[in-house]
Amino acid sequence: MKVEKLLSKVDRSPKRSMIDALRPSMRALIKDGLSKHSDVDVKVAVASCISEITRITAPGAPYDDNQMRLIVSTFEGLADQSSRSYAKRASILETASKVRSCVIMLDLECDALKSVRDYHLDSVFPSMGSIMVLVIEESEEIPVEMLKPLLAHVKKDNTVRGLRHLY
């Protein structure tokens, strides 16, 4: 998608004129036809664009929870490294980690983080670790489903890849 490439070049917190120029794309991305497209790769491409717009407009939230669920849903596909959209999914995860947009996962009750496995690339672990740390710090309650894999990994290795700075 050309839009993804162009959005990735836009600096964070741009001038008002740039935000105004982005508005047509921002509206086009949330049309039902795109977010509910039958092709998973199209959904991931749309989520990537929404992720970039979220990065650009941070700390503001340009989309509502329903639209942000599309970003969160892409993390579930991280379990399939052979997928054509794996690299794009990992990039969305990295962007969410960097701009702290992962705090929305608390509101969305996201459990897609469970899809990370030992075989994932090292580039996924730091992003996932940052997200998990932030979610844990911001949570009033930490879901048992999130703690079980963390504690199992700690017990197994006496450390958590990507979370070593906690110890």
Explain how this protein is built:
With 167 residues, the protein is mostly helical. It is 60% helix and 0% strand. It has 9 helices and no strands. The chain has helices spanning 2-8, 16-29, 32-35, 40-57, 65-74, 86-98, 104-108, 124-138, 144-157. It is globular. The termini are far apart. Mean pLDDT is 76; it is low at 159-167. Keywords: DNA damage, DNA repair, Nucleus. This is Sister chromatid cohesion protein Pds5. Pfam families: PDS5. It is found in: Nucleus.
Task: Kindly summarize this structure in a few lines.
It is found in: Nucleus. The protein is mostly helical.
Q: How many extended strands?
A: 0
Mean of residue pLDDT values: 76
* Structural class by helix and strand composition: mainly alpha
Radius of gyration (CA) equals 16 Å
> What's the main sheet like?
none
Task: Tell me the fraction of residues in β-strands, as a range.
Answer: under 5%
User: In which range does the helix fraction lie?
Assistant: 55-70%
**So how many helices?**
9
Described by its quaternary structure, the protein is single chain
Task: For this entry, give a set of tags.
167 residues; mainly alpha; 9 helices; 60% helix; globular; Sister chromatid cohesion protein Pds5
What's the topology here?
Elements: H1 2-8, H2 16-29, H3 32-35, H4 40-57, H5 65-74, H6 86-98, H7 104-108, H8 124-138, H9 144-157
Helix pairs in contact: 1-4, 2-4, 4-5, 4-6, 6-8
